[in-house]
Amino acid sequence: MMNGEISQEAERKVINMVMKGFTRNIRALEILTDEQVEQFHRGTLDVLNETGIRIEHRKALELFGDSGCRVNFKKKQVRIPGYLVEECLQKAPASFLIKARDTKNNLKVGGNTVYFTTFPGMKTVDLDTWEPRVPTKKENDDAVKILDALDNLHKLLCYTPYFEIEGVPSVMTIPESVAAKIRNSTKIQLTGYSKDCETFNIKMARVAGTEIMGQCCASPPLTFYGDAIESAFRFVEAGFPLHISTGDVFGGTSPATLAGSMITNNVEIIAIIVLTQLLKPGTRVVAADFVFPQNMRTGSPAFGAIGCSLHHVMFNQIWRKYGVPTNNASVGLSSSKKIDFQCGYERATLALLAALSGGNIIQLHGGVHGELTYHPIQSILDDDIAGMIGRFIKGVEVSEETLAIDLIKEVGPIPGFYLDKKHTRKWWKKEQFIPKVADRLTYPEWLKGDKKDALAYAKEKMEEILATHKPILLSEGQDKEIDEILEEARRYYKEKGMI
């Protein structure tokens, strides 16, 4: 169905044609007791019922009012009763399929499946001077092609890779970005919204025969502006899944405590889940945790902070109880301005903890500093991080064959060894993860060679991908229709004086 809804029959046909991702076969990391999880739930219901949330959208206010909520139209404030929250959380699916342009890239979101996605940046960055600059359209397209080639990257984010593209008016950046991803990759993408651009994004997705994930973002504390709600209406009505995101900064736009920020964060997300289920029961939603402590010296978000992980781990535990798939969004950001040791340890730590605690979608690949810079080299390095984490959460297979008791008895002590055994040839690749751009040479080999590091290997990998990877292209007719939709968008914004 090109309205975005997938029938049960269609889902049965493609259920085995999904991007594999990673399966967490180990018990999820938890840091809350059952009583504490219940405290968070009661506190969230209390705030939703007593304080409520500001919704700057008349049609949404009327829908809430007609559904039993207390609505103050003058203040644009909605108070949602607990029973309605419980009903709507039950209606949101615990797992669901998203249809890609190529069925091998379909996603089955939820449960113990873990997918990695990108983190965008406003500009690219020079790898010699570390100065940011606006990328060209070719650099944007090339960066998407690289993402399409990465084995451990399963989904593309909005604005990916860049918020700015040379020669593209700012009002056209999102539609041009969506078109670039549709043309250069068959992976699922999340799209943004701004000044009605989601209408064009939905049209392009339909032309390409793919679903596209919409977005609705809070403006903390406890507020949703009209454009965010209008985006939610449009994607729900189109039958596409919706990504609901917050953006709380502890001590700035939410309480300074991790526990308090969890309450406001969940209130914001649940309010929109209620809205989506009132609009169309069963609407597919993802709850996204996009939070940061505030750097109290500078006032900026503290990118890469361990507080993000504490929040993600709590969030994943609570939302597993709610039965709604989760996105851990604060992972792919660092306070470092370079692709360096700090950048690596911050993102690897946050990504590992997100996966261990049961996050379904983890935003990792490509972003360097904050949301300001992105580089495809970083996405290649991140793909190794994702692969290592994926191997870890797969866990350990314990069977008669893997225990290898008979083999151990056969080999015995020295001079016995395992290198020439059939068991070794069968199992070593299954048991090990081999990174693609890490330095794995012996020390003598490295000293005699060019003394390359991971960054150098990643540069070589980027050139190899650009020289050899061929994305699946749209048909000539589809490509022409995408151009026509982009031209329609340009006319629309010209008439409004935005171009």
Describe this structure as you would to a colleague.
The chain is of the alpha/beta class and 499 residues long. It folds into two domains: 1-395 and 433-499, Trimethylamine methyltransferase-like (TIM Barrel, Alpha-Beta Barrel); 400-431, no CATH class. 46% of the residues lie in helices and 12% in strands. The chain is built from 18 helices and 19 strands. It has helices at 8-14, 34-50, 58-66, 82-91, 137-149, 173-184, 197-208, 226-238, 258-279, 306-322, 341-356, 376-394, 400-403, 405-411, 422-431, 443-448, 454-468, 476-495; strands spanning 22-23, 53-55, 70-72, 77-79, 95-98, 107-110, 113-118, 124-125, 132-133, 155-156, 188-189, 214-217, 223-224, 242-245, 249-250, 285-289, 292-293, 326-328, 361-365. The strands form six sheets. Strands 1-7-19-18-16-14-12 form a seven-stranded mixed sheet. It has a four-stranded mixed sheet with strand order 3-4-2-13. Strand 5 and strand 6 (107-110) form a beta hairpin. Helix 6 (173-184) runs antiparallel to helix 18, helix 7 (197-208) runs antiparallel to helix 18 (476-495) and helix 12 packs across helix 17 (454-468). The longest helix is centred in the middle third of the chain and has 22 residues, at 258-279. The protein is globular and about 85 Å long. The two termini are 35 Å apart.
